[in-house]
């Protein structure tokens, strides 16, 4: 199969491309498209065969459910069973936007789309291309992130092409995404709203709308980076994800000690014949003395760190580094989401450094 790339990065939106992409979806094909979080790999959510094709193209385990993308609240009502009042409240506050709600499903969305679960994850993306595609096709679009399973999520059309060219019908190239990390997922099927995956919409923002909010104990890590032992409720959070080819370790602590520790470890590793990469910020980059230093963003602008994280991990894959050291990014609002992804990429390897280690 030859994967067509359609440029929809300029305004006004090229509706001819959107119509053609919509036709592919209606005919049971697959189209990758931009959202505000990451690129999605879309198929008609009501079509079992389309969902099976999505799993095959990504090499994704079939028990890991897909997110259904909609453009109107009434589409959620059409696929949910016993929809709680919190759904409308959260939708009013955050849709279109980077929030996915897990609700009980009726028969409209097949089990092939929900990985066999009786619940369905739904979100209304805040991206003009995504919304136009949903409206034009008339399809609710099942879409996981448009990467090969186990690779970093795609934040540019070129990332999608790297992973899926020849395996899907088309890619709508809408330029770089805005946020760069996947949506926050909340479970609305229990008494208390529960965060299953952290994202741009954080705990405080959710609390302001619905009051009490919990975090799935299965995704909480203590300061040594080890799990509480509970099993994550979102199947996708159970898999090792986003693993770069190089062995990644996070070094956390006071800035000066972190930098000197990374410099020391990088020098040792290079002496032993390894190729070393370092994830730095614009504020710290010129203080590293060895290794291949890549700037993830500005410490003063946490959005830039989220935006570039996956691209940096892909760049290190291309550079074929053996060992990667990263600073830690426990930033005020998105810190939890950023560190959740970075810790997974590091297989939870964190070294806490103290002043007296200098
Ligand atoms: O920002 C996003 O959410 C992106 C864009 C494309 O919308 N999509 C995305 O999809 O990140 P994916 O497939 O990479 O991640 C979906 C996550 C997985 O962890 C999956 O297990 C979880 O959502 N999920 C889906 N349906 C669920 C359900 N019914 N119950 C619990 N978790 C569910
Ligand atoms: Mg994914």
Task: Spell out the key features of this protein.
eleven-stranded mixed beta sheet; 16 strands; binds threonylcarbamoyladenylate; binds magnesium ion
Write the layout of secondary structure elements.
Blueprint: E1 4-7, H1 15-26, E2 31-33, E3 40-44, H2 48-58, E4 67-69, H3 73-79, H4 85-94, E5 99-104, E6 119-123, H5 128-137, E7 141-142, H6 157-164, E8 170-173, E9 184-187, E10 193-197, H7 203-210, E11 213-215, E12 247-252, H8 255-271, E13 276-280, E14 292-295, H9 302-319, E15 323-327, H10 335-345, E16 350-352
Parallel strand pairs: 1-8, 2-8, 4-6, 5-9, 10-11, 12-15, 12-16, 13-14, 13-15
Antiparallel strand pairs: 2-3, 3-7, 4-7, 5-6, 9-10
Helix pairs in contact: 1-5, 9-10
Bound molecules: threonylcarbamoyladenylate and magnesium ion.
Note down, in words, how this protein is organized.
With 358 residues, this protein is α/β, with parallel strands linked by helices. The chain is built from 10 helices and 16 strands. The protein has helices at residues 15-26, 48-58, 73-79, 85-94, 128-137, 157-164, 203-210, 255-271, 302-319, 335-345, and strands spanning 4-7, 31-33, 40-44, 67-69, 99-104, 119-123, 141-142, 170-173, 184-187, 193-197, 213-215, 247-252, 276-280, 292-295, 323-327, 350-352. It is globular. It binds threonylcarbamoyladenylate and magnesium ion (MG). Magnesium ion (MG) is lined by residues 144-145, 153.
């Amino acid at each position: 199969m030859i994967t067509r790339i359609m440029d929809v990065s300029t305004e006004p939106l090229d509706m001819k491309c959107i119509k053609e992409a919509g036709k592919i979806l209606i005919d049971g094909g697959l189209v990758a498209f931009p959202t505000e979080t990451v690129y999605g790999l879309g198929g008609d959510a009501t079509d079992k065969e389309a969902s099976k094709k999505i799993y095959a193209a990504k090499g994704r385990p079939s028990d890991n459910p897909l997110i259904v993308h909609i453009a109107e609240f009434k589409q959620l009502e059409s696929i949910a069973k016993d929809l709680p009042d919190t759904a409308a409240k959260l939708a009013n506050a955050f849709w279109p936007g980077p929030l996915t709600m897990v609700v009980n499903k009726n028969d409209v969305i097949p089990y092939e789309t929900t990985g066999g679960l009786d619940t369905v994850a739904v979100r209304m993306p805040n991206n003009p291309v995504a919304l136009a595609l949903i409206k034009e096709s008339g399809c609710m679009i099942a879409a996981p992130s448009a990467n090969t399973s186990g690779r970093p999520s795609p934040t540019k059309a070129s990332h999608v092409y790297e992973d899926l060219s020849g395996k899907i019908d088309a890619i709508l190239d809408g330029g770089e995404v805005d946020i760069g990390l996947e949506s926050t997922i909340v479970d609305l099927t229990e008494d208390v709203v529960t965060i299953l995956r952290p994202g741009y919409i954080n705990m405080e923002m959710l609390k302001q709308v619905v009051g009490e909010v919990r975090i799935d104990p299965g995704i909480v890590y203590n300061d040594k980076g080890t799990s509480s032992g509970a099993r994550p409720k979102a199947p996708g959070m159970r898999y090792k994800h986003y693993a770069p080819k190089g062995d990644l370790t996070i070094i956390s602590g006071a800035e000066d000690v972190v930098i000197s520790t990374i410099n020391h470890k990088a020098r040792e590793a290079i002496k032993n014949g390894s190729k070393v990469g370092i994830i730095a910020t614009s504020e710290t980059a010129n203080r590293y003395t060895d290794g291949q230093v890549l700037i993830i963003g500005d410490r003063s602008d946490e959005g830039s760190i989220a935006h570039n994280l996956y691209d940096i991990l892909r760049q290190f894959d291309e550079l074929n580094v053996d060992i990667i050291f990263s600073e830690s990014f426990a930033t005020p609002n998105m810190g939890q989401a950023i560190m959740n992804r970075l810790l997974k990429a590091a297989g939870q390897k964190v070294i806490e450094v103290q002043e007296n280690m200098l």
